[in-house]
Amino acid sequence: MLCSHVGRVGAVGVVVGEVADQREREVVGRRVRRHRRRVERRGVRVKPRAAVGLREVADAQVVVLSQVLAHANTIGYEHHTNQMVRRVNGERVTSLQHLVRVVELARSNAATTPYVRFELEPHDELVVLPTATLEETTMELLAHHHIPHDRSADLRRSAAASMSVDGGVEP
C-alpha cells in the first residue's frame, strides 16, 4: 500500500515537473520574441540614417554599439544597446577599423588622453571610460565572459600590420 502511494506521488511530481517545464519554455519563448521585436525596432532607426547620405567616405561603415558588458567601469552604461557610434574622442568614426585605431591611440597616449569618449546616436548620449584602466577592464571582461579575443581576426591582423608599418596608428 505504501509503495503504490509513493509511486503515485512520484508520477504526480513528474507531471507537475513537465507542466512547469512547459510553462518555463513558454515564458522564455515570450521573452526571446519580445527581445527580438525590440532589437528589430531599434535596428530600424539605424538603417534609414545610414542610407540617407551620412557617408562622408566611400568605404564608410555604420558602427553600432550592440551591448555594454557589465563591469565596475561600465556602471550606468549597461542600458546602451544598438546605438550608432558617431565619434570617439571628438573624431568621427568612419569604420570599425578606424574606431579600433582611435581607441588604440588613446590607450597608447593614456598620459595625455585620460578618458575615451564615445558619442552615440540617435539620442546624443555619451559613454566615457578611463583610458588608464581600459586594458585591464578589457582583459577582465574577456576572462569573465569566456571571450577568446577582444576583436575579430581581420582587425587583429590590421592592427598588427599598422603597428609594424609605421610604429603606431595610421592617420
Describe the structure in your own words.
There is one protein chain. 51% of the residues lie in helices and 13% in strands. With 171 residues, it is α+β, with helices and mostly antiparallel strands. It has helices spanning 2-51, 96-108, 134-144, 153-166, and strands at 64-65, 83-88, 91-92, 115-121, 125-130. It is globular. A hairpin with a 3-residue loop joins strand 4 and strand 5 (125-130). Strands 1, 2, 3, 4 and 5 form a five-stranded antiparallel β-sheet that branches. The protein starts with a helix and ends in a 5-residue tail after the last helix.
Which terms would index this structure?
single chain; about 170 residues; alpha+beta; 5-stranded antiparallel beta sheet; 5 strands; about 50% helix; disordered N terminus
Largest sheet: 5 strands, antiparallel
Low-confidence stretches: 1-17
Q: Residue-averaged pLDDT, rounded?
A: 75
How many distinct helices?
4
Shape descriptor reads globular
What separation lies between the terminal Cα atoms? 85 Å
Number of strands: 5
Helix content: 40-55%
Order of helices and strands: HEEEHEEHH
Q: How much of the residues is beta strand, in percent?
A: 5-15%
Structural class: alpha+beta
Radius of gyration from CA coordinates:
24 Å
Strands, helices and their partners?
Elements: H1 2-51, E1 64-65, E2 83-88, E3 91-92, H2 96-108, E4 115-121, E5 125-130, H3 134-144, H4 153-166
Antiparallel strand pairs: 1-2, 2-3, 2-4, 4-5
